[in-house]
Structure prediction request, 609 residues.
Amino acid sequence: MKKRIILLFVVSLVLTSILSGCGESKPSINVYNWGEYINTDVLDIFEEETGIRVVYDTFATNEDLYVKMKQGGSSYDVVFPSDYMIERMIREDLLLEMDLENIPMFEKIDDKFLDIDYDPNNIYSVPYMWGTVGIIYNTKMVDRELTAWADLWDEAFSKEIIMLNSQRDTLAVALKKLGYSMNTRNIKELEEARDELIAQKPLVLAYLGDEVKDVMIGGEAAIAVVWSGDAQAMIEENPDLKYVIPAEGTNLWVDAMVIPKNAENVEGAEKFINFMTRPDIAAMNADYIGYSSPIPEAIFLLPEEVQNSKVAYPSEEELGETEIFMDPKDIIGEYDRIWTEITSAQ
Amino acid sequence: MVSKYMKRFYALLIFIFLYAPIIILIIYSFNDSKLRGSWNGFTLKWYFELFKNKEALKALYYTIVIAISSSIISTILGTFAAIGIHGMGGFNKKLILNLNYLPVLNPDIVTAVALMALFRLAHINFGLFTLLLAHITFSVPYVILSILPKLKQMNVHLAEAAMDLGATPFYSLRKIIIPQIMPGIITGALLAFTLSIDDFVISFFTTGHGVSNLSIYIYSMARKGINPIINALSTLMFIFMVVLLLIINYRSGKAEKMIEERR
Prediction:
């Protein structure tokens, strides 16, 4: 008897949840974003203001997002890819052209982040967050100012350096040190960068991902290559840490909002993108995530110390020359080969 | 004497290996810092934030709904399949048994992509339904494998005797066979339940918008760092499991006592 009750309960639970998915009369949009990349309070505000329910899901990497979009069977209305992935999606005809007249808040975005190579004239994408890659170091453990990528090859820091376990970002460090473009299509330059990284290996403590934060805060290593958003979080925990954007120039990355071609509620998607670009909402998100907003009016609403932070909002000259990653297209295999040679080198 | 201490020491080591990560996770669920590296003092705030976080609760809800329903359905399917396979003989039995092993040995990713392709072909919308189907699919072989040995141990003549005495086949199935293989069925159900909670790869490829289980939700935090509410959630789930185990042990202990008293 007891078992039957449990069974009945489960069946009804499943049925109601399946039915509530289909039978909902309220309009809804499906949003697919990075994990921990939004202040979820704004979703409630959006629903209150527009009456559109947001069905919200999260992904971990651009590649996961790409798989989900290619796989089909389940459509999203707004997704948040990064620069090089947007370029690839445009090339593969996965994105819908946006009607900017429906997104009036678009004009609030700083020109610096518009009309970039991955999407000329912003036909498909509206920037959401941006950041840089730089060097973070512990001023108590490093007795001089670090200013350049070349400092990562200084033998004084043997076994004190943490590099990113990320193909493009780490190759970019070596390419920039050599004075090449991080989007080079010249195999010779890539191989030179490979040799540099292999030569640097004895100095490197480890290639890490997200764990780098714990290691740097705990003072287990002196120097690390990190993303600016993470740097901000690390400095808050350990004030001895300092973030610099190297003199040779660095990578500027942008995550943007796009509408997939198979979106079911394009009108709702445009409303959502417009809503997310509104300064007060953008400020709520930037405050929660700790990454940099491309909307000056939103930055103005943030706490004073964040506005003045050189990590999140560096001045034009501090930023120096930046490059945005481009999709390597046909030579992606060469990238993979060279990265394998680096990681497997002794 | 020495060997006794060695044995204890060895057991202790194994338990440390098994439980140290969980204990550390529980400790950090009370840490007043977003990061794992430093201890900033005791707090309960992650527990409060957990119950305010709709995304996490929704993921927990789907995980439990899928785990319970897929384990019940796959246990029913698996039990009947096992009884059927047990009754077969010769080449057919071998064939079916090996077909049953294949999905167990297959890498998850193969099962995942294959299921995804199948659902696409059938034009089923990805969501809770496809996720449930996928979980049932990968659980059934394990259920069958955990019930078959119990069937082998069973005395075949008991069911025959019951039917001799006038029981219908279904009645003897219910009153004779099922009670005898019950331990196997329960093991199978628990296995299916934990497999379903554990699964990431197959879920990732077979779910659609609006439906994420805990493993997908936690994995998606990889870039920004794992939110400490996950420590709080894992702690609560661990405590729940321990309490459940204690209750099951207590009850089965009581049942055994009752049987002994009757004798």
In short: The domain at 54-227 of chain B is CATH 1.10.3720.10 (MetI-like fold).
